[in-house]
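Quarterly update from the structural biology core.
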Amino acid sequence: MSQMFYDVTLLARQALTPGMVRLTFGGEGLRPFRTTGVGDEYLRLFFPDPETGKLHLPHISEDGRWTYPDGQDAVRCSTYTVRRFAQEGEDVTIDIDFVVHKGGLASEWAQKAEPGDRITINRPRGLYSPPKDYAWQLLVADATGLPALSRILEQTPEHVQSRVFVEVAQKDDEQILPYHAAATATWLHGCGNGVAPSRLEDIVRGVPLPATPGYVWVAGEQKVVRAIRKFVRKELGFPPERYELVGYWIANAEEWEAKWDALDPAIKAQIDAGWDSGRDRETVMDEYIATLEKHGL
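Predicted structure, tokenized:
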């Protein structure tokens, strides 16, 4: 089994827009890191306790479950996508782009971090997996999904037609997307991203889709992505291999977490049993979402 955790050092920082900063990580601890090569590759960032400086990492069981030493929850971790992976000889560097906003463990850390600061990351994995026969793709994201969307576009074969929609808080948050001759991009300003209602569901519902084989990839706020999933899966009838729809963040997260913490343990056990059942992943996801919505989550 390959290494699970890597101690990394912040090497450089770059302000991309008023709403996003790029941090470049490297160091000797990152040398064993291996990329999946997947466009929306993601990993977790683990931060030390600001008062004690102690870092709590999970123990991972054979079935993939995470438990924590001393009975402490790993509250100081966040999930982010890898915008860029580079290797020169033994030296490895990765870029991670952070949305700048008030609150949020990782965003606040990123705004204050300086070269030389250290954190720990885990082994990456990716989700984006279009079928080999795809002739087109619909890529839709808010600011949190922009780094993954950009990397996906960089890796897209020349023959694949790409329709791209990105929702940002303001025009100044636009970025120059990787060039792709068969891609058309539209920027949506002043919506979603915690500043106003999202327009992403309306966009997905309204965009004409070719009759040829394709793929839909969406990343954004949890409930927005849920609504899009219902449309793509239920109304359009796309099979699971034709889409990847991922909730990257939760609006009003503190309220959501309080409701989750108060949820009956029997219901949580039922949710866990569903994921452990070995049944079709998307069917279990349907049940999971229905349970969350039933309890206002």
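Residues 144 and 207 are 22 Å apart (CA to CA).
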